[in-house]
Specification:
Elements (H helix, E strand, L loop, with lengths): L2 E9 L6 H6 L3 H6 L3 E8 L6 H7 L3 E4 L5 H11 L4 E4 L11 H10 L4 E5 L11 H18 L11 E4 L15 H11 L4 E5 L13 H21 L4
Helix pairs in contact: 6-8
The structure holds guanosine-5'-diphosphate and magnesium ion.
Length: about 230
């Protein structure tokens, strides 16, 4: 079966979660729906057994030694073969078991881009309080500065058509990649939707540096707002 869906997963020292993350992907269910699936783990300079365990679980491992969440995604997207890309962290927090429903929604709604919302169905403890406050502030900025109507600006689970990538101008190579991808998709007139998911507390040590990444995400939003104004975009 030709590869139709590429699941791209960035990973930095996630040996405790990488296997269960990969094994949750419902490859045979997607196969029955007619989609060949490849799983690409982008090893972002891990010093533990992440790459070895990803291979064992059946993934292709792509190496991106330059550290950065955005750089990892850029490398993974470039190597992907599917016409649909699905994403999520390597920490077992995103419900990959829900991929068939997300893909069906993409197809049935003739959508280009789906992002997910962890906030509507949030369970106690799944996101730390300080990260939740940061998320609320950043999502407020995204909504007020760009008029993009989403509830979770920082979710890392997306399902979209690979063909839209050349139209998206994403400068961020770090954690701000996530919000910028959404902003670009929503403001470039693509057909977008946000779907609630049941997010789980991550397995293993958190890589996000709350204050530093939160601040740099906020600055990145302000710079982007400025560049849109300069370009005369909305
Ligand atoms: N923060 C960060 N995460 C990375 C990097 N490279 C890959 N990752 C992976 O990107 C995902 C997001 O990081 P995580 O700590 O889960 O952040 P959070 O989910 O926003 O709290 C995880 O799967 C990481 O292993 C990187 O350079 N920085
Ligand atoms: Mg995570």
């Amino acid at each position: 079966m030709p590869v139709e869906i590429s699941v791209v997963i960035p990973a930095l020292n996630e040996e405790g979660a990488i296997m269960r993350t990969i094994l949750e992907i419902p490859v045979s269910e997607l196969g029955k729906m007619g989609y060949g699936v490849e799983v690409i783990v982008v090893d972002n300079g891990s010093t533990d057994r992440t790459a070895e365990l990803a291979l064992l679980a059946g993934a292709r491992v792509v190496s991106e030694p330059r550290m950065g969440y955005g750089l990892a995604y850029k490398a993974g997207f470039a190597r992907s073969r599917g016409s649909i890309i699905a994403t999520g962290d390597a920490d077992s927090s995103y419900p990959f078991s829900g991929l068939p429903a997300l893909v069906s929604k993409l197809e049935a709604g003739n959508l280009d881009f789906i992002t997910t919302d962890r906030i509507s169905m949030l369970r106690a403890g799944a996101i730390s309080r300080v990260n939740l406050v940061g998320n609320i502030i950043l999502t407020f900025l995204v909504r007020s500065l760009f008029g993009v109507n989403i509830r979770d600006s920082q979710s890392g689970m997306w399902v979209f058509r690979k063909g839209i990538l050349p139209r998206l101008e994403i400068a961020s190579d770090g954690m701000a990649f996530s919000q910028e991808l959404k902003l670009e998709a929503y403001t470039k007139g693509l057909r977008c939707a946000e779907v609630p998911i049941a997010y789980r507390k991550r397995v293993g040590k958190v890589k996000l540096r709350t204050l530093r990444d939160g601040l740099s995400n906020a600055i990145s939003l302000l710079r982007k707002r400025l560049s849109y104004w300069l370009k005369g975009l909305g």
